[in-house]
Here is the input.
Amino acid sequence: MLPVLSRLSLAWLSALGVAAVIIAGLIYSITSGNGPGRVSLSIDGMERTARHEPAMAARQTPAANQTATGTPGLRLAPPTLRDANEAAMETIEGAEGEDFLLYPDEPDYADNGDNGGEIVITIAGAGPKATPVTAASLTRTRAAKIPGPDPILLRATPFGKAPRIGPDGRKAMHVYAAASPEQDGAPQIAIIVGGLGLNSALTERAIDELPAEISLAFAPYAKDLKFWTQKARDAGHEILIELPMEGYGANVDALGPAGLLTTQTREENLQRLDWLMSRFGGYFAATNYLGAKFSTQDEAIAPILKKLNDAGVAYIDDTGASPITGGRQDGGVIASVDRIVPPAPDPSRRNAVRRELRALELIAKRDGAALGKTYAYTTTLDEITAWARELEERGFVAAPASTVLQRQASRH
Here is the structure.
């Protein structure tokens, strides 16, 4: 029998051995990315501590109506618009003169897009890692890329580079427009999906799953706009920039710090427009966010349209309120949206989306072309994707918004 001291020594040695195994396991777990390690990364001069996670490919992609961290993303609420020649359809009642729809718990531009779930952790010298990457829809045909911003078509402003007409006369509205579909006599339907960049998952869905003929409009306050707009152009989508404008019944704070207001002077609004136009490049047109009140006042909207035109940028209005929309005016090349497709965050609005898509078909049959606009919501994207897949079978052709814009302009 071993002495008591020897038995105690063996027990201590055994305990030390077990502890060593546990410590080694923890070290391996941390360094392999499977443990509760924490990594400190610099964000805009501040230190932010983040959990060290497994490789992106092994992580679950967030739901389409959530941000990458699972928190609800920012949404944009569109105005309602009705075509007088069509049967009345379902509406959401609002205050008199109100030009937008509101949904519960709907954030707006007032928080500048600073949603905690959208913070991107970057390392100096590395590109943005904004979202999980998912495979593009296999049903989509590969489209030609839209060219990126041409330095010749940019001018310097105090806020960054903004569009200009090139010395050779080239304009953004032509250079960055998607190719028109072949003219076979079929009615053309174009749709703009707006509010992009504010929710990473929905933005990626719109870029990857919608047909390339669908035009995409990006919010000026979104993060990583250079990354997202390049991704959209590479997928064949022509892009627009959204201009927040004053509407009826809206809190002006909801338009963000660069909102265009009737209470501002001409010079103040033009300075804000410079800031907005410098957020990213490669867009062929601008479009309003809200703006029914701003668009009805010629002294407010006219300088904006002139500056866009002088920059070679077209304009697409969805308020129906401006008396100068719908063609080639002194203020530039302008188009007017025929229908607003309802933003549908859940399946309860599915039928409303289908009715407005059907209304676009009726308008296209009557006029030869129709232009719709909507905002990036889960069910809306689902329905547009399914609808576009069968569009050709029903005798229509999907067209980029620039094609319908030029068609409207040629009639005036």
The chain has ten helices and 14 strands.
